[in-house]
Amino acid sequence: MTSVEEPARSNGRTRDAARTQAEILDVATQEFARVGFAGARVDDIAARTSTTKRMIYYYFGGKEQLFTAVLERAYGVIREAEQELDVEHLDPVAAIRRLAELTFDHHEQHPDFIRLVSIENIHGAEHIAASEKLGKIGSPALDVIRRILASGQRSGLFTADVDAVDLHAMISSFCFFRVSNRHTFGALFGRDLVDPAQREHYRAMLGDMVIAYLTAPRAEA
Amino acid sequence: MTSVEEPARSNGRTRDAARTQAEILDVATQEFARVGFAGARVDDIAARTSTTKRMIYYYFGGKEQLFTAVLERAYGVIREAEQELDVEHLDPVAAIRRLAELTFDHHEQHPDFIRLVSIENIHGAEHIAASEKLGKIGSPALDVIRRILASGQRSGLFTADVDAVDLHAMISSFCFFRVSNRHTFGALFGRDLVDPAQREHYRAMLGDMVIAYLTAPRAEA
DNA sequence: ACTAATGTACGAACTGGTGAGTTAGTAATA
DNA sequence: TATTACTAACTCACCAGTTCGTACATTAGT
């Protein structure tokens, strides 16, 4: 982010704090996602950088804070993407399906982010808790869901009694699991959930599931 | 799981290989689940045991193999539980709902197992791949799903064109996510997915979702 | 007596973090 | 313009504390 492209210096070694920080974050993101927080080595991260380990401590303070910074940037990317959601011109059913599909696509396109979130959950979300930035940023996607849901429920199209957060959990769980548990699931059941050939199948399955749930005829009560 | 109830041996230091191994596995399971593979310390695991670090290497060979052994036992517990599934006397709709509920309960009751699976996924399921035991054991639950599904599809009750593995993925994803992503989800959206007061709500939501998906009227095609 | 099981002590390699000094950019001043 | 003064950006070498693993001694059970 904010790469200060200095046009003059072609090859490299100009002094550029923003660039150095961004490079550290790039490498750290890969490393943390690859081997987890405890598994990552500050020395290795530094080695993959064009700068030194000292700079990591200079800019971020420590391994823990570096991980927090990585998380903050990763969540920032998500939020940016969510802000570009443009589905409210559709009817509620189509809008929800489209939203589910975009969530599906986004998870598929950002496996590193999903690994980071898995790792952060193993650590009890302590870095998120420790971060000011990540504390109270509501999800734009949640607002969108809220409005679509209200519209669909008002018109009687949606019969399910869910709120936006729960629906978001439902959609996310499928998208997240498909990527996060790809390896164990594949090893145990012999099916690659992220097989490109099955992509459309699972994308449709998610949409069908969500719409079926929202529009199912409620017999009783 | 396979707790160390040795009835005969009164207090302590009798020589009992099986018991020592089981104790090591108990502690190792907790530690690995708590802080991940790289985060776990062999010395700490040993310290929480009534035996010594030497025994870990004596019986398991090393940290990596210990983790594999922990995984093997954890999956064994799951398989045992799945073998006690008894839902096929119900009609397909009720059977699937019941199966989903049991899966839901099981995930909730074994958060350590879920953490281990998350961790194993971060490591690309390499330990499962390296294990002979975990290689080719089909899931009993999968067989049950397969039969219920076939029955429901034959009778026309189930309109969805899913197979057992995909349905298992769908059910698991919700159950798994609810526990595995509890912390980040709670931190970001302010809702505890594992709040006991919401338990029935989410349990019903899962059942409704799966049944709605399976029985949804397929308009087109 | 013999062996499986167990405990103690130790070390080589690693790991996060830091101390201390250097270089590049920049703006004020002469 | 040249000089000086200042600071952000950076490098290198090292430390203090861990961490996995093992050599060796010892004990319990048969």
UniProtKB/TrEMBL annotation, chains A, B:
One GO BP annotation of this record: regulation of DNA-templated transcription
Entry's Gene Ontology molecular function annotations: DNA binding
Residue ranges for the DNA-binding region feature of this UniProt entry: 41-60
Sorted UniProt keywords: DNA-binding
Pfam family, one: TetR_N
PROSITE patterns with a match to the protein in the record: HTH_TETR_2
Gene3D superfamilies with a match to the protein in the record: Tetracycline Repressor, domain 2 (1.10.357.10)
Keyword field contains DNA-binding: yes
Domain HTH tetR-type: 18-78
Source domain of life: Bacteria
Keyword Transmembrane helix: no
Protein name listed in UniProt: TetR family transcriptional regulator
